[in-house]
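User: I've been going back and forth on whether these two constructs are worth ordering. Before I decide, could you fold them both?

Assistant: Sure. I'll take them in the order you sent them. The first construct and its structure tokens:
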Amino acid sequence: MLMRHCLRYASILLLATGLAACGGSSSSGGGDGSPSASASKATTLGTRGETSQPYGRSAGNAKAVWTDYDPPMTHAGGTALPTQFITMRDGVRLAVSVTLPADESGQAAAGPFPVILVQTSYNLVMGQFVSAIGGADPYMTRHGYATVIVDVRGTGNSGGTWAAFGEDEQGDYAEVVDWVVSQPWSNDRIGLYGVSYLGITSVLTAAQQHPAVKAAFPIVPIGDGYRDIVFTGGQVNPTFIPIWMGLVTGLGIFDFAALQADPAMGVQTLVEHLLGAVLGFQVPTILKALLGEENTVYDGDFWRVRSPIEQAASIKVPTFVVGGLHDLFQRSEPMWFERLKDRVPTKLLIGPWSHIAAAGVPDDGLPADGVPAMNHILLHWFDQYVKGLDVGADKIPNVTQYVKGLERYVTTTDWPHPQVRAERLFLRGDKSLNATAPTGDEATSMVIQHPIGGICSQSLSQWTAGLLGLLPLPCFTDDGADQVPSAVFSTPVMTEDYYINGPIQADIWISTTALESGLSVRVSDYDPATGKSAPLSNGLLTASLRAVDESRSRYIGDEMIQPWHPFTKASVLPVKPNEPMLLPVEIFPTSAMIAKGHQLRVAISASNVGQGLQPLPTLLKGLLGAITIHNSAEYPSSVVLPVVPASALQ
């Protein structure tokens, strides 16, 4: 029992897993990185490979409602086959665990079966204790699915060197699918499934278009490795990334299956994992990020390969995406829906979750508000699209989001919301936030530049994958303490409910006494009656990386509401002491109702250490400085909000 609890705790830790602005091109705004006025339009957000595109509205499924799909079980249980190994093209052996439906005596049932494929970096042996990190779900087994769990190269019991979604690993995915198809218990119909890393391997495998792959169900998958988490706003993540890399390495030491199957090969695997960590990928990558090595700290091919959303156009199978309002990959999860919905049957479910909560650790809170248990949804999706049954999964609501403030799930037909409009509110000298632009000079605000803002905040909980959020600290649910050293701007008390749904952009004019600066912008829901400021979302940006590529940015009407920053060395802009500059800050998507009697707050500071820390060379340029936030007619700081009529919540 103690061993089981220890492994479960380890698993929790584990999941805690030529531009205009560059000066000269006509596609951008001014040389300071500011967005210019645009013709009326509504666009998607672009990627490295694609510019923004006009987006339409999902017309169908408007009256869809959730139903609980829970048909009778077809099998009494499951049985696990002995661990096997697949030899890849370069001789590397991948460990495989197979679970088949079985009768009451544990005898494998007669196949063949549809297969759920899970590819993990977290050691398939550990999945026996916590299925979310790579284990067969008994519910799915009893409904007639075989489950295949594979340790990706360089992890768990598999040989080779790990490189986190590198080209060699992605090359393995197709060979694994070929192996599954060749097995006598497989009926050549495969569903891709998994949480976190396992969800990412699902979308990357789906993009390879193997004919046996029929559907995907990724839970909290990354979209853009650089922008989502590792270098948000150009700042390296100092919390989740080192923990994650360390835990993948640590669990690779426990290659129980490899040692049991072939002790000599098991020892070789262990040595490969350790040498790969110290000399190959993990330790060198962290050091390069902290020390400012250019190929790591700037966007480029290394990050493109590790950004699955760049391959979204290649996904041709029905895909159900699950995300979280406070997940590690909060930014990209709704964009997965946006990029897939016109190509394949696609659904989106976003809960009030951190990363581990979306995996059911300690609890995902479902069923709730008519939304069924997660494995019931999975069975519904796979029975329809993997087994090929007509069970109505196509009639699941297109988009289901938890709305903070309302504290329940709400459905709609599309994301962004079909009724969304952009509303710009200005930061005023009296610390108010309203729709009236300043007409003259107003009082400025000053914040000190330091690297440890947000040291106890919802962000620290979020960027440790929700692990620290398991501690009952009030700073994880109330931004009040973190707002003390910040410049805080508030709307008047709402006279009616105010609903926002989508990404937010903060256009903040600042000057700094230093040669560099970071900027953190937090959005929260303030209740004057209780004094609590409930965190909604936040954004982060390094001043020298403020350049914007308008051709890839998102617009609603005439307003840019989600900037696309190139984050390349070529896009770096100068930071001159005491010279005003506009920082368009991307604030990750949220869905929230600011209730009548509440206020919406925007808090601005110089850093958010849970989410990002500037690489050392950049950090040293900004130490001991101070930021001035401008809000005058000449330099009007503002935020652009995605506002939806509150009547849409009915």
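The second construct, handled the same way:
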Amino acid sequence: MIPNITKGERMAGLLVYLAGPGRANEHTDPHLVAGSGPIMAWHNDDQLNRDAALSIARELDRAKEVLGVEIRGGHVWHCSLSLRAEEGDLTDEKWAEIATEFMDEMGFTEASGKAPVAWVAVRHGHSTAGNDHIHIAASMVREDGTKWSGHLDYKRAQDAARALEKKHGLEQLNPVYAMRGLRPGEREAAQRRGAEEPERRSLARKVRACATAALDEAEFVRRVRRTGALIRPRYAAGRDDVVVGYSSAERPRSKGLRPVWFGGGHLAKDLTLPRLRAAWPDSPEHASAAVGEWGAAARGRRPVAVGREVHEPDPQLWEQYSDEVARLREALRSVPLEDHGTWAQVAREASGAFAAWSTATEQTPGPLAAAADELSKTAQLRRYPVRPLRTVGPSARGASLVLAAAAMGGTGTTAEAIMLRQLLNVAKAVHDMHKASDDLRRARQLSDVVRHQLSQVAAALPPVPAGTHAVDGEAAEAVRASTAGQAPGRPAGSVLPPRYEQARVHAAESRGGATGPDIER
């Protein structure tokens, strides 16, 4: 559940907007689901119109107007609470319960031990992205004229949302991991260009696959070019021998179309050049070789050198790297849940292995691509360690090297079947980490990929010989979100209009975040 807070001065403008048609006529059946007792007594769940919205706004503003209280930056507090479209819809009763408990936690109600404020929660259908949500409008002036404190309200709202997710069995959002989502209209624009999927997503897989399989930066540039993607460097100001970033694009499918370029950071947070360089050797020789390959790529010339990317890997490497992935799975048993840097790096390597396999064998995005995309979400941290993390011990990077050379079509090989089993064990370890961290949303998504996607790959591969480590049975189980028992409801408070009497001592001026633009826009 995602809270989004804005503040302003025009309560009437906000309520009229919430009860109106919306920017794209997306508002349907606007009505109240919860609010202060007196307001709910006069305004039930009937569909709101402009007159009702203005009447409610006057009630929300009454304490401010009667007691003459002014709040610098505005007294209107607006917060939307939204679910992902994939979560489906809640009932009005459930939203009412969540809204009331949220306002309790935020200190707006009698539960704070102070005079309450006037507030309402409005539900008006789905957003343009299909998300079920509500809007909470509240005054920051209490019934006794004291001021509700907005100090750290953004953080408090996030903490309250995490607690309510767990209590009500909603998908739990982990504040540690992040992912670059698609922009509105990006999927439709890619379809108009004839692309199978948005270029941002396909490029992220190719770049991650090549970065994981490459031993150094120069090899990375050559591997990306071999996938058919375009890549170009971003030089330091006034230099042509210092590369500080890059951008990549899919080659246009038709003449006359221009490539759509994405910087590494716009593909994913873990695909910026500084993040990728953390896994490669850093020496003058390697830097010089990389600059040469970047220059060739920028000019559309042939690669300067030829490396491992053009050679078929030794068949013995399949067994060697399968064993290394198996050792990695065992090593993960001792990694603490709070070691987010290590888990992100392991997920990045496993995602890169599946991405390399997909790039080599899937003509259109399939189960391997889905597995790569899902693991890549754990590979991205909202905040990375100050010092780059270098893995010590077993790694899944070698798996990317051999899987990048997997043959297109056919039924696959026994070596691929064994490698899949070992990578599934690593995915299972990442799944277990999310589950133990109460990040049930991510755990469920990983489990679904194994059950519905990778099971198809396993079925098409030869049987694994006896004695080979098998996948834990739980790896294919869908993880159900735990649902907490519902606590008995508390009284909604008096439905009588409040008596606005000035408190003897005013609270300190609100120290909330910066005021945003006009709230109704």
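Notes on the second construct follow. Residues 473-492, 506-521 have pLDDT under 50 and may be disordered. The first strand starts at residue 2 and ends at 8.
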